[in-house]
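Journal club prep — side note

Before the paper discussion, L.F. wants everyone to see what a predicted structure for a comparable chain looks like in token form. Sequence:
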Amino acid sequence: MITLAIGLVGCSNKEGETEVGHADAPHTGPVVDHGVPMDARVQVAPQAMQQKSPPQLAPQFQPIPQFQPQAVQPQAPLTSPEMKQRMSGEMSPFSQPQALPLEGPVVQQQRSLQPQAMQPQMMQPRMMQAAPEQAAPMLSPEAAPMQSMAAQSPADVRPPSDDPFDVVEVFYGTDRAPMVWPGGVLPHKYHALLPAATCVLLGIAVALLLTKFQQYIVAGLTVLVAITGAIVVGQEGWVQYNKYDRFLTNQSVVYGKEQGDLQLGTCKVSIPKSHQAGKLESPSVLHWEFEEKPEDHVMLVEVKSEEEQQFLDMLKQRVAESPNHDLLIFIHGYNVSFEDAARRTAQIAHDLEFQGAPVFFSWPSQGELLGYVVDRDNSFWTASHLREFLLKIHYHSGAQAVHLIAHSMGNRAFGAAVEALAQDLNQQEKMFNEVILAAPDVDARVFQEQIAPRLSSLAHHVTLYASQNDLALKASRAVNGYPRAGDVGASILVLSGIDTIDVTQIDTSLMGHAYYGDNTTVISDIYALMQNHRFPKQREWLRDISSPGGMYWYFDPQYNNSVTRAPSSVPLR
């Protein structure tokens, strides 16, 4: 009897174990008892799973690399605030246990924001990223499917850059002669302050002379003016000295204003994070700035000359890496140095959010207000070098689209090069996609009869910006004796195959000559033209008007400085 009783008890225990194991088999998550509070259930569930069926815990947490087996320990229960925050921020909503509802407004807010955090970001150059409100529409459901954070590792998430500035790499061609210092050493730094010291001494001498005639008030004003002038001149000289010292330190090439051979290379230009569209931030004496800083100013950091084949290989690689496989060429005008041309090119590319290769050609402008006559002669002299440079880019860059912006007297060099290019290429061969002629300082009749017909055969689309407030072109007309193509005087130049746009009503600058890079409305119009390929009638801030020469366009004044760079149509980039 005793033996029979022991046998019956053993059988009953085996049947109980079988039933418990069968009941637990379908469940992969914690067992929920509705009679126990939520906090107690969460604390007990991991212990029960750990003691009875440890193999069943691995499939639940295995897709999430962040949750290692040692993380689920009795010392760190799932009800702790830290563990809840990790789970709500890192786990996919599809892997949340249905028996553990998300509690609290903070957790619900994190869950509502979870899909945006889980979307992958488009890789693009940091200096060319659009604003946050513009970047979101670029990710379509097909291009950016929602992925679980469980499949991502922390190494895949690129942390935001803490640099206070961006660096734009610009390609260049120039026929300026490089500057050379004797022995490769700059004069003593205090030589930069000699003009300022001379100004102060001259002012004091004049003031002492005035005191002999008892003109004390005038003498005091003379000293004040001399000190002010010394500060302005000294600040400019000190900035220039530090700039050249930086170039010598990093072994950069410094190009002057003399004529030379065609050279190719690359530049690096800093754009501060605080940069405002249309601005070329520079050291200001009003802000007591005596040195260029990349976090505050648009600054030319370095200039490197390259061999022709190396240059073309680098340019071709940059074009191939861009989304649209395109490049933008800028040709500067009168009174522009090599440094200013590089800075302006980087600023335009940055403000246009241009993701292709920015390129500029710098001809030997004197960079001086009184150097107009020399600049006029050099603009024709450089035409052969510009033609050669454009042909190299056309045949060896691999670009599918080449855009070009020519400003002021740079249109003379470009117009002379166009006449030769028209003979080099076939009539059906297009060299440029968008050509923008900003304030062209070219004889209006020469442009109409010689340049425009050939240019229309080389480009898919040509746009001419003109203004009635352009004082530089008014002065050019007085010097040359004939109307300029970019000047709106008694009439405006309207030609077949060229869109003429009058910027008179929105350009309120002092000289009215640099609106292509200073006026945000014009920058926005160029953005819509280049990035979205929108015709004038599709740009809502433009109005058409008829003239004896034909129809042209002008800016609606109510849109001045308020045109957005995110138009209604989706950008083609």
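L.F.'s comment for the group: DSSP finds 18 helices and eleven strands in the chain. Keep this in mind when we get to the figures.
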